[in-house]
Amino acid sequence: MDLSLDDAKRAARVLRDQLPDTDLTHSKALEIVAQQLGFRDWNTAAARLPSQRGMSAPVPVLRSLDEARAREFYIDYLHFNIEWEHRFDYAQSILYMRLRRDRFVLDLSEHHGDGTPGSTLWVPVGDVTALHKELHATGYDRMNPGIEVDSPGGPTMEVIDPFSNTIRFCQPTP
Fold it and tell me: Does the entry feature the keyword Electron transport, yes or no (predicted)?
């Protein structure tokens, strides 16, 4: 199962945050999430979902140099969702934000020293052809990636963000 206990708890917090005008308690939100995941109740879900007490997957940090272009590329084109954003309290503060699409989590930072422009990420995907069609349909005119069928590991589609970071979406071959 790909979902962890921490993910389920986070889902309950998001549910509560999305419905602020209701009397939805955290306990009730946990029960709803458990049922959405196919469990009888939260106690059953908590007993069966894996915990993230040890190390979990790393979150790469990529350098971002222009907030508008980052949002256009990662949100409008690649369809990431913003998990959270952070700015210091002073005016014109630089942005640090966490993005997520499915299990792909990525941080973008405008902070000097975070990430190095020109980095490369390799991301396994279930169907690179479907992703290719989805991205092509966005109408993003700055990118028109193809699929390299003979790439090591499987068919691969490569996109380059506005800051020269490369993301290789690969459909691993068995």
Answer: no
**3-state SS class at 31:** helix
- What's the pTM value of the predicted model, to 2 decimals? 0.70
* 47-69 residue pLDDT tens: 888 776 666 788 999 999 999 99
Pick the CATH number of 61-170 from 3.40.50.1980, 3.10.180.10, 3.40.190.10, 3.30.1840.10: 3.10.180.10
For 13, 14, 29, 106, 168, the CA distances from 20, given in Å and listed in that order, are 11, 10, 12, 27, 39
What residues does each domain of the chain span? 5-48, 61-170
Q: What is the pLDDT of residues 124-173, one digit of tens each?
A: 999 999 999 999 999 899 999 999 999 989 999 999 999 999 999 999 98
CA distance 123 to 166: 11
Give me the sheet containing 104-109, strands edge to edge. Answer: 61-63, 104-109, 96-101, 81-86
Alpha helices in the chain (DSSP H): 5-18, 26-36, 42-48, 67-71, 128-136
Cα–Cα distance for residue pair 40/37, rounded to 1 Å: 9
